[in-house]
Amino acid sequence: MIKVLRSVVRGPLESYVAGFAKELAAQGYTRCSAEQHVCFIAHLDRWMLAQHLTSGELTGEVVEQYLAERRAAGYVNYRSGKAMRPLLDYLAAQGALLPEVIVLGSVEGLLERYRTYLVGERGLTPGTARCYLDAIRPFVATRLCGDQLELAGLTAAEVSGFVLATCPGRATGTAKLIVTSLRSLLNFLHVEGLIPVPLAAAVPAVAGWRLAGLPQALEPAQMRRLLASCDRRRAKGRRDYAIVLLLSRLGLRAGEVAALELDDIDWRAGQILIRGKGSREERLPLPDDVGAAIAGYLRRGRPNGVQPRNAFVRVKAPHRALTTAGVSGVVYDAAQRAGLGTVHAHRLRHTAATTMLRSGTPLPEVGLVLRHRRGLTTALYAKVDRDALRVLARPWPQPATGGVS
Questions:
Q1: 303: buried, middle or exposed (CB in 10 Å: 19+, 13-18, 0-12)?
Q2: Is residue 27 within 8 Å of 40, Cβ to Cβ?
Q3: What are phi and psi of 227, to 5 degrees?
Q4: 155, CA 20 to 30 Å: which among 95, 104, 283, 288?
Q5: 244-255 burial, b if ≥16 CB within 10 A, otherwise e?
Q6: Are the CB atoms for 127 and 170 separated by under 8 Å?
Q7: Helices 105-120 and 172-191: crossing angle, nearest 10°?
């Protein structure tokens, strides 16, 4: 039981604090952590009472003002927009706030406006919009001066300089996502009147050629080490083991694993519903070992009473659905434990395709499992089928015999 009276709340947030404390407990917060949140809410409540504000007037501008005064007063904890998020989410769910007024700091506020633009105006799916935001968040953060964003003075040299400093050393696909997202953001900023001139043309292009590289699959021994690094005696290990199996056996993308919901698993039919790119939905057979791993996590790993229906959720509070970045982080951490260096989730998709080819699965069938729209995309894996390529190889010309007169 969380002690709400530890910090007396008698202002505009009084009617919400008890329900908020219960919500924190439902999301998996420990008693100590939840009581610290309540102490923070009590401080905010007293500040709002002194400012003669109601809960409905807790706009983004007011939030920023409160946090600025809290930082100026010397507080070292609960001084950012992230600290406000649990309360603001709860108040919005109770109808005490309008979603559009929830602004978590200047950077997150701009990104939220940009996300709304991507989904509403450009027609991107929420998952794709989230990838765009993750890609350009570091750039927006570079424009932060104190508590405010400085966008009006942005120059073409600063744009190209960011790309040249950020993209080297990254995978080609990641670099292309960064520049594509940055061009889109700059177009948005110009349309919104936040920058005076269009700067999208200042973003350099990324060199990359289709089918130029080789799929970097893990060898069977490496996959065994990766799976063994997940400690299935613990809830986190059971979750991570199931995720790695889904990625490596079915060739799923990280976003598809993150989007997987409990109702998407048909245990009787032995099938799993995959929500892929472009809002496509397709069913794949659920292998026995993968199904057993998921069932083990759901029975003895997934927290009880979790609100989101997503199959995989955070281990620590709040128990929100695992994001695409979170799924990739699971693979990265497992590879580090196994001593395999840097391994990202998409490499396990390559591993699944390569394993199928080596077991004799025809290339078109590999494309069906990976749900490729074009055969050319699957053709990349023909490079790893050495036995088939050996038939096509022409013999090396032999040197001519005899002397030259």
A1: middle
A2: no
A3: -70, -40
A4: 104
A5: bbbbbbbbbbbb
A6: no
A7: 90
d(CA 10, CA 246): 50
pLDDT confidence of residue 320: 86
Cα 384 from chain centre: 30
**Which two three-digit tokens encode residue 78?**
């609960």
Q: Buried b vs exposed e over 84-100: b needs ≥16 C-beta within 10 Å? A: bebbbbbbeeeebbeee
Identify the three-state secondary structure at position 252. coil
Crossing angle, helix 31-50 and helix 60-72, to 10 degrees?
A: 100
pLDDT in tens, 256-288: 999 999 999 999 999 999 988 777 889 999 999
Q: Could you tell me which residues are beta bridge partners of residue 266?
A: 271
Q: Are 314 and 320 in contact (CB under 8 A)?
A: yes
Asked whether the domain spanning 220-389 has the same topology as the one spanning 106-202, the reply is no
CA angle (302 as vertex; 240, 275 as ends), nearest 5: 70
Backbone angles phi and psi of 89, in degrees to 5: -65, -40
**CA 25 – CA 206 distance, rounded (Å):** 47
The stretches in the chain having pLDDT less than 50 are 1-6, 99-105, 392, 405
Q: What share of the chain is helix, strand, coil (3-state, %, to 5)?
A: 60, 5, 35
- The residues annotated as belonging to the active site are 253, 277, 346, 349, 372, 381
pLDDT of residue 270: 93
Check whether the bond before 196 is cis (ω within 30° of 0).
no
Name the one residue in this structure whose structure tokens are 């009581």: 35
* Largest Cα span, the chain: 109
Q: Tokens in use for 10? A: 């008698």
Look at the chain and count its residues: 405
Q: Which two three-digit tokens encode residue 250? A: 């079915």
**Fold that domain 106-202 belongs to in CATH:** DNA polymerase; domain 1 (1.10.150)
Structure tokens at 374: 């074009």
CB 323 within 8 A of CB 134: no
pLDDT tens digit string along 344-367?
898 999 898 888 888 888 888 888
Could you tell me where the beta strands, DSSP code E, fall in 122-214? Answer: 144-145, 148-149
- CB-CB contact of 35 with 3 (8 Å): yes
Strands 148-149 and 265-266, sheet pairing: unpaired
CATH code for the part of the protein at 220-389: 1.10.443.10
